[in-house]
Design brief:
The chain is α+β, with helices and mostly antiparallel strands and about 450 residues long. It has one domain: Orthogonal Bundle (Cytochrome-c3 Hydrogenase, chain B), CATH 1.10.645.10. It has 14 helices and 14 strands. The strands form 5 sheets. A 3-stranded antiparallel β-sheet has the order 1-2-3, covered by helices on one side. It has a 3-stranded antiparallel β-sheet with strand order 6-7-8. A hairpin with a 4-residue loop joins strand 7 and strand 8. Helix 2 packs antiparallel against helix 3. The two termini are about 25 Å apart.
């Protein structure tokens, strides 16, 4: 065994991870080692009342807390048989728009963006500063939406089972329209800018997975579809996923079981755009055609294009929701809790976030499963790193290291989200639902 290189800690990713590349029996082996301490979210949610779960799961991530809240809230509403009013449904969509805006802006402009300018950071080259500042202004707008609807930009507190604890005033929402309209116009020109970035020719087949809803571009609702023929319910897809522990990582890896085999897959903006482009507004699809964007995107380096398309979409969608919003009759539906089990998936900025809960008659969590998008993408990311290094073995080590970091950043991994569970030997309550297994660490 010969070590090619080791990167102890990658920069410009959410959380802490490294890469080790080695030659074993003539083949390249790559390990994306996640070494953050696991946080055991599934374990400490057991025994908690359903009313506490949204606030607890929001703490999984400071970038996408809304996704964790919404996946949990929808799962409980399915158990309790709650159908929220259309204005509540729309407000939740607006809240999700705020999260997509701040997360996509962060990645496009501050994390992946500098890679295309030869910059070590968003602040290291003078000519990149105007681009970074534009991204910060977009991110600030996303945070304003989160603050208005959720009470604060990080770990918002208003989302609850049945609706919201407090509703915004119509005038407060309307005050956002001028700056949203300006951001939307700027975002259309940004699509044209990112299309012209210098992308490596790195096409590969990926099974793209996302929600798909007949009413709208997917966020909170829909079935799960893929470019490989998958078309199933949320619970049906959850039963197809197998989580396993790998020895070099505190994060679980996910694979999809289909046709008698297991394979990695991709969730996130590339998958959503590839599978749902027909639901984008006409002005955005026209911009895509003018820019020469051809779907499907099968190069993960071009994830920045998909994110830019979605960033523009969320500005447009936020404008639509605000313009059409009429206050509901009440902020939260009446309901009674009951025992039951349900799964729900929403589209976090980085891809599908899967939750499953089992409640007892008192409304307390008996068992749960949380599968974040990053842990679903890790296996594919390692495969792409291995294939890239295998094809460029003759290149200098520094080139391989730099390009490997760029590949990882193109996935926009949230490492902290991915390390919430390790199943320990002898954990009597560490069971998983049928169709999902977590191998002992």
């Amino acid at each position: 065994m010969k070590r090619l290189f080791k990167i102890d800690c990658l920069s410009r990713v959410e959380g802490e991870t490294g890469i080790t590349a080695e030659i074993r029996d003539g083949e390249v082996a790559v390990r994306a080692g996640v070494f953050e301490a696991p946080r055991f979210f599934e374990s400490f949610l057991r025994g908690r009342h359903y009313s506490e779960v949204a606030d607890f799961t929001a703490r999984v991530c400071g970038i996408c807390p809304v996704a964790y809240q919404m996946s949990a809230v929808h799962a409980f509403e399915r158990i309790f048989g709650i159908e929220v009013e259309e204005p509540i449904r729309e407000l939740r969509r607006l809240l999700y728009c705020g999260e997509w805006i701040e997360s996509h802006a962060l990645h496009i402009y501050l994390l992946q963006g500098p890679d295309f300018s030869g910059a070590e950071s968003a602040w290291s080259k003078r000519e990149y500063l105007p681009i970074a500042k534009r991204g910060l202004s977009f991110k600030k707008l996303g945070n304003r939406i989160l603050t208005l609807l959720g009470g604060r930009p990080i770990h918002p507190v208003s989302a609850k089972v049945g609706g919201f604890s407090k509703l915004p005033q119509k005038q407060e929402l309307l005050s956002l329209l001028p700056v949203l309209q300006q951001a939307y116009e700027e975002s259309l020109t940004e699509i044209a800018r990112v299309v012209c970035l210098p992308f490596e020719d790195n096409l590969m087949y990926m099974e793209c997975i996302s929600l798909s809803d007949p009413r709208e571009y997917p966020m909170n609702y829909g079935n799960v579809i893929s470019n490989g023929g998958v078309d199933t319910s949320m619970a049906g897809f959850l039963s197809m996923v197998r989580e396993s522990q790998v020895e070099h990582s505190t994060a679980l890896h996910s694979a999809m079981r289909k046709d008698g085999s297991e394979s990695p897959y991709l969730v996130g903006p590339i998958s959503r755009v590839n599978l749902n482009a027909e639901k984008l507004p006409a002005e955005i699809t026209t911009t895509m055609k003018k820019c020469g964007i051809s779907l499907p995107i099968m190069n993960t380096r071009m994830g920045i294009i998909a994110r830019s398309i979605e960033l523009s979409y969320t500005f447009s969608e936020a404008i639509r929701v605000i313009q059409e919003y009429e206050a509901p009759s009440r902020s939260c539906a009446d309901f009674e809790h009951r025992a039951g089990e349900a799964a729900w998936i929403t589209e976090a900025p980085r891809g599908m976030l899967m939750h499953r809960y089992e409640l007892d008659h008192g409304g307390y969590v008996k068992d749960c499963t949380l599968i974040p998008p990053t842990s679903q993408n890790l296996a594919l990311m390692e495969r792409e790193l291995r294939d890239f290094i295998q094809c460029h073995m003759d290149k200098p080590v520094e080139f391989l290291k730099k390009e490997s970091e760029k590949i990882v950043r193109s996935y926009d991994p949230c490492i902290s989200c991915s390390v919430h569970l390790v199943v320990l030997e002898g954990d009597k309550q560490g069971k998983t639902p049928e169709g999902i297994s977590s191998d002992p660490a």
